[in-house]
């Protein structure tokens, strides 16, 4: 059982905008979730940002794969697999479930805006999401599977 591999967030600047990228990979595993490391300190939680998930449009083996958002409130915030359907959090809490309905075979995007006061809009095919997740120090993106993910790879991009 190989398990989950998360790349560290890689930061760059494109046309004056912060771009953060990471990749989640799983090979021959019974894990139901795939999740990032906490976002780096370069991401300013007091400013709006856009989250793109499955930017390569890869088919991830699962029936549906919604995206949940977790916040980290300490420097050691993290998620770990608990050997099944759920994850275990260290200094982190789930703040929003299913902000994207299904990234299993397509890329979706959500605008995360700490000043947005409207109704949460879930990202679905051809509809970008819009959500306020407050202003925590860190975010963790969780692909929340309903069955075991196998040979999954997912690219994630944040722009600010």
Reconstruct the topology from this structure.
Blueprint: E1 3-6, E2 10-14, E3 17-27, E4 33-35, E5 49-53, E6 67-72, E7 78-81, E8 87-90, E9 92-100, E10 108-112, E11 129-131, E12 138-144, E13 152-159
Order of helices and strands: EEEEEEEEEEEEE
Point out poorly predicted stretches. Answer: none
Number of helices: 0
Percent helix: under 10%
What's the structural domain tally? 1
Beta-strand content bin: over 45%
Mean of pLDDT: 91
**Number of strand segments:** 13
Radius of gyration: 14 Å
SS-derived structural category: mainly beta
Major sheet size, sense and barrel closure? 7 strands, mixed
What is the first-to-last residue Cα distance?
Answer: 36 Å
Shape descriptor = globular
Can you give a write-up of this model?
The structure is a single chain. The chain has one domain (3-159). The strands form 3 sheets. Strands 1, 2, 3, 5, 10, 11 and 13 form a 7-stranded mixed β-sheet that branches. Strands 4-12-6-9 form a 4-stranded antiparallel β-sheet, with no helix packed on it. Strands 7-8 form a two-stranded antiparallel ribbon. It is 0% helix and 46% strand. The chain is mostly beta strands and 160 residues long. The mean pLDDT is 91. A hairpin with a 5-residue loop joins strand 7 (78-81) and strand 8. The protein has no helices and 13 strands.
Characteristic terms for this protein:
160 residues; mainly beta; four-stranded antiparallel β-sheet; globular
């Amino acid at each position: 059982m190989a398990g989950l591999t998360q790349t560290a967030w890689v930061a760059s600047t494109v046309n004056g905008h912060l771009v953060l990228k990471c990749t989640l990979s799983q090979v021959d595993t019974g894990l139901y979730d795939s999740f990032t490391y906490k976002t780096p300190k370069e991401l300013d939680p007091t400013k709006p940002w856009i989250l793109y998930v499955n930017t390569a449009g890869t088919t991830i083996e699962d029936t549906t794969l919604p995206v949940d958002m977790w916040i980290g409130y300490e420097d050691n915030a993290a998620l770990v697999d608990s050997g099944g359907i759920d994850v275990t959090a260290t200094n982190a809490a789930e703040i929003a479930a299913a902000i994207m309905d299904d990234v299993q075979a397509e890329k979706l995007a959500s605008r995360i805006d700490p000043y947005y006061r409207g109704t949460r809009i879930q990202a679905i095919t051809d509809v970008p999401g819009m959500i306020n997740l407050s202003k925590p120090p860190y975010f963790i993106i969780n692909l929340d599977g309903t069955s075991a993910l196998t040979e999954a790879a997912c690219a994630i991009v944040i722009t600010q």
